[in-house]
Predict the 3D structure of the following.
Amino acid sequence: MRILTIGLTVLALLAAGIWAAFFRWPGALVSASVEPAVLISDVRLVSMSPGAAEVELHKDVLVLDGVIVAIADHGGLDGDPRVASALRVDASGQTLLPGLIDAHVHVWDVPELAAYLAHGVTTVRNVSGLEVHLRWAERIEHGALLGPTLLTTGPILNSPGPNAQQNHVLVMTQDEARAAVRRQHEQGFEHLKVYSNLTEDAYRGVLEEARALGMTVSGHTPEGVREPGIPLERDFLIPFLSVLDDGFLTIEHTESIVWHGLRDRLNAERMEVLAQEMAMAGAVVTPTLIAHDNLVRVAESDGAYLERDGVAAMNPLYVKVDAGVYDFWSRQDPAFREEVRRQFYQRATGMMHEAGVTLIAGTDAGIFTNLPGRAMTRELELLVLSGLTPYEALQAATVTPAGVFGLDDRGVIAPGMRGDLLLVSGDPLSDVSSVEYPAAVMANGVWLDQDALNRLEAASYQGSLPRSVLNALPVLLGTQ
């Protein structure tokens, strides 16, 4: 009996060790307490408030219980009794702006969430959802899990074809599409993502069921079946312009717009006309310029870019699945075609901006080698190269997506707004790259100083292959 007891004890300890090693979340993410009062003192303020100056100097910002309650000239709050017990942050020489919003990410496991906070991203929209994302989002909002606010679409809706992937829900008919939308709604999803291979019948089913249920639709603009001769010799079965009136919340990827809207012709004159038509239709676009730019960087470096600092934050399951893509792009010669594309995608994005198309910043982080958190800085840099000013690029990562997603409690720094803040050294209005390594971050009222950000960075490298497989089981089993 004693031997049996010892054996069971050993097995229990072994099981506990395995769980701790592979399935338990990093400790830096499982506790989050809101600081009762924080006074950020003598800061350069980039509030993003409509009508406000781009920057206001020598400001004090008071946050109580996670809500911004007062903004005053430096010293103007000294007599306020609410300041007496506040954590005082001397921010002289630093810049405060709203926490960044990444409008297009792929989250596979909890440690990736740490990477976003470590680099100033306080809200993300996951665009390939599973039910587990809904549970994480709820825990984050209630303070049981430290992470950026997690918005999510449901699983991607697509039809069989050249762009179909294992994590897509494939539908062909209107009835199949309606049933898939209803299932996602029953699971608790409020947002849908569609993809390029959707048949016209299935696409119409998605739109009609989404409208009936009050769900939003975003994604790649559906093209219909890729019949012979499409797109080089004839147009897509679902023309790009016909989709513009279908009420998309957001259209994803400049490169997909060029593919579908221009039939992959890198024609600046046609792009200029298309941009004007998109603006007249009220289109909102997530350019994700980094998605193609990183392909080129990997090719230019013969794969060395895949080993740069920070890649440990990439999900280990995804890295294994995408090994062939890494190898392919490491062997490509980008000298002509891909470099021309990179330049054209930037130019096309600038044309959309000039025409008045609403742009929001998204990074495709979590796939290929788009690093969670850090990718946002690369995307902002690319938006500036496309012709946006640094202020306009930062608008695309703060106030603009907040409005698009109906998040009326964030995106600007003003009394009554949520305590989602980013404190950086230097001046991001002259060098947008300065947002990459924050001096401090506040996420839903939780104050994260440099030590806390360093712990989050370390936690982001603790991805677990077994845990990621468990998260992805609905995809692997085809039951999502």
